[in-house]
Amino acid sequence: MELYRSSYEAYPFLSDESDDLRCDFELLTDGMASLTGLLRAQVEDPALREELLWIDQLIYHMNPTLRTFFSVTDGELDLLRAAVRRLEDQCAGRCALFVLPQGSQAACTAHVLRVESKKLVRLLYRHARQGHAVPPALLDGANLLSGYFFNLALRLNMLAGVEELPFVSRNYK
Predict the structure, then answer these.
(1) CA atoms within 13 A on the CB side of 106
(2) Of 29, 61, 51, 43, residue with least CA distance to 148
(3) What is the spatial distance between Cα 78 and Cα 62, in angstroms, rounded to a whole number?
(4) Dist CA 126 CA 139 (whole Å)
(5) What global pTM score does this model have?
(6) For the chain, which domains are there?
(7) Rounded to whole angstroms, what are the CA distances from 168 to 15, 94, 97, 142, 165?
(8) Residue 94 DSSP label
(9) Cα separation of 167 and 128, whole Å?
(10) Which residues, at least 6 apart from 25, have a Cβ–Cβ distance to it below 8 Å?
């Protein structure tokens, strides 16, 4: 059976074979960039808004990597590492192990981005296990984004005066 391709197709790679994860990666990063823009609209702090604009652009620079090349610089990854460390320092003591993904609207959006970043990492590992090259710096960047958005969620709740609610698992002690 011949595959129908709509003349209205929103993106030329949507009909790629299901085991070709490049389009899935591009859609996931596009969604993350869109959610980062949404988060930026929910944040009032000018410095964080500026940083989120930079993060948004960074995600879009990662977007074509599997189809072209990795264009994020070592300096940009260093800045992302520094942002994660800064947020960790600002939020020291806000959580011991696990917290419920709740709080202010902005913090909740950051938690969604934390999970989307983990999905991105998972997809990259699947792509690598298929025998494709995945730049180690891309994996580092995707993992750093997860840490960034987690710590940003803590910071946004702190700024909003929302306490973190610890989560104690019945399954993991």
Answers:
(1) 23
(2) 51
(3) 15
(4) 12
(5) 0.95
(6) 22-63+96-160 (1.20.1200.10)
(7) 43, 15, 9, 27, 10
(8) S
(9) 33
(10) 63, 65, 66, 120, 123, 124, 127
DSSP state letter for 71 = -
Encode the chain (173 residues) as per-residue pLDDT tens digits: 798 989 998 988 998 999 999 999 999 999 999 999 999 999 999 999 999 999 999 999 999 999 999 999 999 999 999 999 999 999 998 887 789 999 999 999 999 999 999 999 999 999 999 999 999 999 999 999 999 999 999 999 999 999 999 898 889 87
- Calpha distance 117→134 (Å, rounded): 16
How many residues does the structure list for the chain?
Answer: 173
Query: What CA–CA distance (Å, rounded) separates 50 from 65?
Result: 24
Q: State whether the Cα torsion 83-89-90-92 is positive or negative.
A: positive
How far is the C-alpha of 141 from the C-alpha of 37, rounded, in Å?
18
Q: Which helix (H) or strand (E) covers residue 148, if one does?
A: helix 136-160
Name the burial class of residue 137, with classes exposed (0-12), middle (13-18) and buried (19+) by CB atoms within 10 angstroms of its CB: middle
